[in-house]
């Protein structure tokens, strides 16, 4: 009896190992090379068009930083162009017990982006959403700064999402 339990364990472990090795052959690295060109080099050849508003400014700067691997963008001709439009919303999430308004708010930003080649042909479109919370303070400057800090955090999150989506797009391209 003990031999059959032991052999079933070995068979089960062998099947798990075989399935893992089979699935590993299907994987390819996100930042590997496609058609002889690295995805990182392709990402650094994207021109990010200016995005209006404060959140747009921070999002563009984060995208430039992320797409160039943290380096200063090279002065080379771009192969692709990225256009981004933002829409913001703010919602109160906690009501003050004193009845003088809300104590906290949730800020949400939706980014819709389009990647085009330099001929203007649309290659990839996507949407990313990120949100953050902010305390509503009674001092005006502190309240403005709190909302700005929330937008900076959200811009960093959106930039990461967009970078990963673009990297996945380029890694999956075959031509």
* Topology order in helix (H) and strand (E) letters: HEEHEHEEEH
Tell me what portion of residues adopts beta-strand conformation: 25-35%
Any idea what the shape is? flat
Over all CA atoms, what is the radius of gyration? 23 Å
In round numbers, the mean pLDDT is 79
Strand order of the largest sheet: 3-4-5-6
Terminal residue distance: 57 Å
- Alpha plus pi helix count: 4
In helices, the fraction of residues equals 40-55%
Number of strands: 6
Structural class: alpha+beta
Largest sheet: 4 strands, mixed
Report what the structure shows.
This protein is an alpha+beta fold. The chain is built from four helices and six strands; from the N terminus they run αββαβαβββα. It has helices at 2-24, 39-43, 54-67, 140-172, and strands at residues 33-34, 37-38, 46-48, 80-95, 102-117, 122-135. It has a four-stranded mixed sheet, with helices on one face. Strands 1-2 form a two-stranded antiparallel ribbon. Helix 3 packs parallel to helix 4. The model has no long low-confidence stretch (mean pLDDT 79).
């Amino acid at each position: 009896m003990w031999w059959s339990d032991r052999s079933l364990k070995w068979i089960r472990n062998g099947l798990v190992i075989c399935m893992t090795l089979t699935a590993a052959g299907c994987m390819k690295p996100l930042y590997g090379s496609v058609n002889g060109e690295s995805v990182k080099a392709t990402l650094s050849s994207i021109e990010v068009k200016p995005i209006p508003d404060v959140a747009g400014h921070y999002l563009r700067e984060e995208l430039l930083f992320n797409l160039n691997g943290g380096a200063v963008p090279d002065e080379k001709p771009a192969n692709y162009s990225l256009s981004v439009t933002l829409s913001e919303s703010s919602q109160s999430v906690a009501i003050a017990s004193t009845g003088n308004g809300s104590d906290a708010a949730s800020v949400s930003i939706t980014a819709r982006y389009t990647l085009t080649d330099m001929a203007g042909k649309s290659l990839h479109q996507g949407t990313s959403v990120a949100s953050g919370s902010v305390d509503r303070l009674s001092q005006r400057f502190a309240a403005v700064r709190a909302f700005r800090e929330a937008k900076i955090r959200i811009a960093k999150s959106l930039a990461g999402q967009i970078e990963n989506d673009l990297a996945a797009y380029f890694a999956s391209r075959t031509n």
